[in-house]
Specification:
The complex is a heterodimer of chains A (325) and B (284).
Chain A: E1 2-9, E2 12-19, E3 27-32, H1 45-55, E4 59-63, H2 79-87, H3 92-105, E5 110-116, H4 118-126, E6 134-140, E7 148-149, H5 162-184, H6 188-205, H7 216-227, E8 232-238, H8 249-256, E9 261-267, H9 278-292, H10 304-308, E10 318-322
Parallel strand pairs in A: 3-4, 3-5, 5-6, 6-8, 8-9
Antiparallel strand pairs in A: 1-2, 2-4, 9-10
Chain B: E1 2-5, E2 10-19, E3 22-31, E4 36-41, H1 45-64, E5 67-72, H2 89-105, E6 112-117, H3 119-129, E7 135-139, H4 145-163, H5 172-180, E8 185-187, E9 190-192, H6 194-199, E10 214-217, E11 220-225, H7 238-243, E12 250-251, H8 261-283
Parallel strand pairs in B: 4-5, 4-6, 6-7, 7-11
Antiparallel strand pairs in B: 1-2, 2-3, 3-5, 8-9, 10-11
Helix pairs in contact in B: 2-3
Classes of the chains: A alpha/beta (325), B alpha/beta (284).
Chain lengths: 325, 284
């Protein structure tokens, strides 16, 4: 069952949707916008998740943040400006106030905050604003680097020499031709595997430092939230099997807070989880996690995977890190 | 149903409207004593993602200028109930027809204009041609529903480029043959069914509406407007897909909230000149 909701926050009319099931509990889940996308999410992922989670007893809410989707408010001029606002916690205060209103309005005991990418960032930044009412975090493909415009201001002011440009272009062309040759070679799987092995080995030997573009603020807030024992499920999309990230943020996070969170990686899908059964994998992973952490009827979801139906799934979630309390 | 007043004369009401066994999500951007009512028929579900905020901005612009606007989601998409896979163009055509009937019967006696963007333009044209509504405004309607699906398939092809090796990729024609043979395909999170492809077979713009120009049919005005790339994100651009899916730290430059006032004003003027004024003159 879905209901249309409209709530005024800071003088702006925010529109949202509530999903309730046949056996509603006093626990809620609220989803926050991923970047500039409306509250339904790409491929209606949030709608599917909210419908299913409502069937399992959660009161689910999806709201458009100011200026997004149906909600009133002004957006920044460019996409990158919005992303920078969100990665700096710019939606958190609104999200926290909205969560508070929803908790009071619907007489809920507590709320799980959820979202993809920017929605996950907003969830993290909102927790310290209402710590006692948040029972968990579901963070989908949370990115730890800071985005910036491709044409950075001032980039034009330092023109490189034409000789250097030429060499860079040559090098890039040479790399691209080698890459194409490898892709079409029958040894491609072995070469790719070897490349990633070497990359991993060099990472293990060389000291790892936080990259210059790391979102330190996000890492710090997330660390303090996890150390405050707010249970968190982090689901990451891994587009290809062999990709080795430039920096292992998960290992970094494990060092800073070893317990209380779980990381599940879903291979073969995209950032929005719309490819290769990604959305189904996300749903199954969330339900499985909730049956152990903060289920409305704790322990009452033994047949969760059967309910969702796994015959169409082509994924294999990998439990990379399972922190234990 | 939720109603909020957002200024002295404008208000917004979000509600579900029952249609068959499903419920259609709608928002009315209202005003006191509206001069006209505009039913906003949105684009194909996958395109809604890019343009909804700008589309809603247009609705608020109309309401602030004395024209009541109603936005809704087709069954099986967005906030409306139903399953996308079970829907097709016939259902969405029925949605436009029923929502037009509902809009005509509610909110006073002001003239009703159907305003469709892309797929919505095609559906609105069909309902307009069958006698529904007092005016028609189309923003970049596709020539046919099949053409719309062919264009939509580019997302599937670009995903394949990213995720599959050259030998594993399918061509657009292979995908379309799969659909015609009854094999569903996944495009940007939506499962396209054989039913969707079949329902597109006979759905095309009537010839007289097919080119960008204005006209009058049975004293009812219509306008076909072509949206240019300067109207991104109201229209999709190839770059938007990458910008809205930033897995890299460097985000290409792409407008999110440009000033559309002059474009909106141009369309508002057309509504005033061709729909509002004749009705006022007629009543006088």
């Amino acid at each position: 069952m879905r209901d249309a909701l409209s709530i005024e926050i800071d003088g702006l009319c925010l529109h949202g949707t509530r999903h309730t099931g046949p056996n509603p509990s006093r626990r809620g889940i609220v989803f926050f916008n991923s970047g500039a996308q409306p509250r339904s999410g790409r491929g209606e992922l949030y709608v599917q998740l909210a419908d299913k989670l409502a069937e399992h007893g959660f009161a689910c809410f999806r709201f458009d943040m100011p200026g997004l989707g149906d909600s009133d408010g002004e957006l920044p001029a460019r996409h990158v400006d919005l992303y920078q606002l969100i990665q700096d916690g710019g939606h958190a205060a609104c999200a926290a106030r909205l969560t508070q209103v929803l908790l009071d309005m619907h007489k809920l005991d507590d709320m799980v905050l959820a979202g993809i990418c920017g929605g996950a960032m907003t969830s993290v930044f909102a927790v310290p604003m209402l710590p006692k009412r948040i029972s968990g975090l579901v963070l989908l493909d949370l990115l730890f680097f800071s985005v910036r415009p491709r044409t950075a201001p001032g980039a034009q002011e330092q023109p490189r020499s034409s000789w250097r440009d030429k060499q860079t272009r040559r090098l890039a062309q040479w790399k691209a031709s080698i890459h194409d040759k490898i892709l079409t070679s029958r040894w491609e799987p072995q070469i790719t595997a070897l490349y990633h092995k070497l990359k991993r080995a060099s990472k293990a030997i060389l000291p790892q430092r936080l990259p210059a573009d790391a979102n330190v603020k996000l890492l710090d807030v997330l660390t303090s939230v996890l150390n405050a024992r707010i249970p968190a499920l982090l689901i990451s999309a891994r587009p290809t099997q062999h990709t080795t990230p430039a920096f292992d943020y998960w290992a970094h996070l494990r060092q800073r807070c070893p317990r209380g969170w779980e990381l599940v990686q879903i291979p073969g899908t995209t950032h929005s989880f719309v490819e290769n059964g990604g959305s189904r994998a996300v749903l199954e992973t969330i339900l499985k996690w909730l049956s152990g952490h903060g289920s409305p009827h704790r322990g009452a979801l033994p047949a969760v995977l059967d309910t969702v139906g796994s015959k169409h799934t082509s994924f294999s979630p990998e439990y990379v890190s399972a922190g234990s309390e | 149903m939720a109603r909020l007043q957002n200024s002295s004369c404008a208000w917004e009401t979000a509600r579900y409207v029952a249609l068959g066994s499903e419920r259609v999500y709608s928002i009315v951007f209202g005003c006191e004593r509206p001069l006209a009512k505009v039913l906003l028929c949105g684009p194909f579900p996958a395109d809604r993602l890019y343009s909804l905020a700008a589309w809603v901005k247009w609705a608020r612009f109309l309401a602030k200028n004395g024209i009541l606007a109603i936005r809704f989601d087709y069954r099986g998409t967005g906030e409306s109930t139903g399953t996308f896979t079970e829907m097709n163009f016939n259902y969405w055509l029925e949605d436009v027809r029923e929502m037009a009937r509902w809009a005509a019967s509610e909110f006073g006696h002001a003239p009703l204009v159907l305003h469709g963007k892309e797929m919505g333009g095609l559906l609105a044209q069909k309902v307009f041609a069958s006698g529904g509504a007092d005016g028609l405004l189309m923003w970049s309607p596709p020539v046919s529903a099949r053409e719309l699906l062919r264009q939509g398939l580019t997302i599937r092809l670009s995903m394949d480029l990213m995720m599959l090796k050259p030998g594993e990729r399918k061509s657009a024609e292979t995908y379309l043959s799969d659909l015609a043979a009854g094999r569903p395909i996944e495009v940007d999170g939506y499962t396209w069914s054989a039913g969707l492809w079949q329902s597109a077979a006979d759905l095309a713009l009537d010839e007289k509406f097919a080119r960008p120009r204005e006209g009058k049919e049975l004293e009812r005005p219509w306008n076909h407007v072509l949206l240019g790339q300067e109207l991104v994100p109201l229209v999709k651009s190839p770059r938007l897909l990458r910008v809205m899916n930033p897995r890299s730290a460097l985000v290409p430059d792409s407008p999110l909230n440009p000033d559309f006032t002059s474009f909106f004003q141009l369309n508002l003027n057309w509504l005033h000149e061709n729909v509002v004024k004749p009705v006022v003159a007629c009543n006088a």
